[in-house]
Amino acid sequence: MSTVQEPTPRWSTLASKPSSSVIRDLLKLPAGVISFAGGLPSPEGFPLDEIAKACQTVIAKEGKHALQYSMVEGEIALRREIARRETQKGIPTEFEQVQIVSGSQQALDLIARIFIDKGDKVLVESPTYMGALQAFDLCEPEYVSLPCDTEGLNPAAFTEEVCRGAKFAYVMPTASNPTGLTISEERRKLLCEKAREYDMLLVEDDPYGELWYDQQPPASLRQWAPERVIRLGTLSKILAPGFRLGYVIAPADVLDKIAQMKQAMDLHTATFTQLISAQVFSEDLLVHHLPSVRERYKTHAKAMLDALEEFMPEGVTWTHPTAGMFIWVTLPEKMDATEMARDALAHKVAYVPGEAFYAGSAVEKNHFRLSFVTVDPERIREGVKNLAEVIRLRI
Amino acid sequence: MSTVQEPTPRWSTLASKPSSSVIRDLLKLPAGVISFAGGLPSPEGFPLDEIAKACQTVIAKEGKHALQYSMVEGEIALRREIARRETQKGIPTEFEQVQIVSGSQQALDLIARIFIDKGDKVLVESPTYMGALQAFDLCEPEYVSLPCDTEGLNPAAFTEEVCRGAKFAYVMPTASNPTGLTISEERRKLLCEKAREYDMLLVEDDPYGELWYDQQPPASLRQWAPERVIRLGTLSKILAPGFRLGYVIAPADVLDKIAQMKQAMDLHTATFTQLISAQVFSEDLLVHHLPSVRERYKTHAKAMLDALEEFMPEGVTWTHPTAGMFIWVTLPEKMDATEMARDALAHKVAYVPGEAFYAGSAVEKNHFRLSFVTVDPERIREGVKNLAEVIRLRI
């Protein structure tokens, strides 16, 4: 018998690109490390009992429906509940305006595929969410990075020249990943005015809007320019990431294109988890649950802010989030947080180096992202103390 | 206040293409129609009790894990169960060789994106599964259509010229959608030999392999060329389509590219439904369930074959499936099944016109696909009788 020959590799151009694995490798954490590197919500905050109850109801009431194929747009029951929640927050929304997706990440991929041709201009915050860059990268846009200040994205960056011909601006106005910053109502309004003035679309990613500590954040950008805003939401942070459920609220023509594209990509999102989620919402099972999640996140954020205040050497600054899961730390300019990550690991503490959050060549290396939600307050203090020592040795 | 201006549309090239809506429009069925147009499995065959039980177990045993983010490759518990099932069918498989996807449709999209650049050669059966064409179309390949005979795909079509430079051949060797035909062990072997001879990859789509009537179909193509076969499977036909769970079994380098691509597309497939499915499999809850599904499909297939025999006029032929959900009907060459579909609807019966299943310009119009699984045997007889009348009027 002749030897079997291995097939000749024949990847697409897209799949032939080397993947940047620096960050991924860093995130393979040895045991005993205090990890501030995660982006996971706290499992302590999952409404397990509510979901168990909803499971039973759905199987008993509409089991066959829940297990069958569904429509590409999503289950009407869930779309209605999401529309109802949006309406309650002050922006009247019909279920027809809602498309269910398999997590926000899929929304990013869908948006990339319906808008971006190779070389197209896309505006992103600097820094911006790395998952969005990963999704957009598949369609090879040219990024224009918009500088952020201590209050987050500044609409002053949206000049006519910057906006001209851009496919869209991707923004996270509330509790930004990675900075944790929330932009003001005034900035939101101005951003929408600029979008209208320069005929630009806004992709508003809002995964953390429900995770506020003391005060509800300003309204969605849809408040000021509904015809230009493609709003992304997710159930991952208020219900369960393991359901992989997100949604898009957008003008009708955008939703048409998304549905057409999604049909070819995965037919539709799982019926079963959609109906369970709709059941949880319809019984207002989260009414008592969400406040406790908010309280937990607030406590953890405060623990980390206190520890930073207590331990960090002079020259180091950080953001003060009022919602969400992250704090963004800035080292003196000459320092390199990617390189320092190995030292940090040796001191049993992990973070995500900031460079992952910059588009194209706009990279800054003297930042890192801390997540505080899955670590207990005492461990947060210990981890920040270790981290401060690592920095002190290098500063 | 000035009037709000609508945004200027700025779709990608991909999203700008008109979608062929002939078929979609035809499938919007009025009430009272006997539909043989569906591709849905029978909900009577869903193991509702088994799934309800598995839900409770998973929530009680590992609820927090089931609701949390997971790995892009999929939950190990489910990958193990799938590997075990493959191994039981005679092809030793490790869980590392299994990637979980959000339904087989996503596998098709993933494969397109990792292999196909615009204009690349892709081989498909003629006719082939329309969902595959929809997914591949997004990457704009050039199709080469391989003719099928009454025994399905004939490996004689794989000449050196046809295979040279092709990214892969997409085949459905068992209970093909749309023809219902299963190719023999001899043809499978020959196909794999050709693949080795001409250095070609084979994408083996096997959604219906468990739905055999009397005899288990021949082995997966992996039996004869494991290093060249990318095998796609799904839980949609044996467990629940509403879970949207499929899998890919492939060589390591292909799995690496898939995982990298999937990460950017939707992070991972839902944890919750993966663990429920793993639980159903691990308790062998399907052992008693699958035979009853097979029996149901066999009964329905026989009812339709009997009715075709009884009512169809001379000049009409059809396939005799031994597994799966479909029968492929061929009209005399001059007839147009797409055009005839409206008449059929007027006679309260629906089918899928064959033209949807052809790639590029290889279209043949004198075929249609019948599905028998969601219609009761008496209604099958009535529907086929109506359909025969429509044909008789035109033949």
TrEMBL record, chains A, B:
Listed SUPFAM superfamilies: PLP-dependent transferases (SSF53383)
Top-level taxon in the UniProt lineage: Bacteria
Keywords: Aminotransferase, Pyridoxal phosphate, Transferase
GO MF terms held by the record: transaminase activity
InterPro entries: Aminotransferase_I/II_large, Class-I_PLP-dep_aminotransf, PyrdxlP-dep_Trfase, PyrdxlP-dep_Trfase_major, PyrdxlP-dep_Trfase_small
Necessary cofactors: pyridoxal 5'-phosphate
CDD domains membership: AAT_like
The UniProt record lists the keyword Transferase: yes
Chain ranges of the Aminotransferase class I/classII large domain: 45-386
Record-given protein name: PLP-dependent aminotransferase family protein
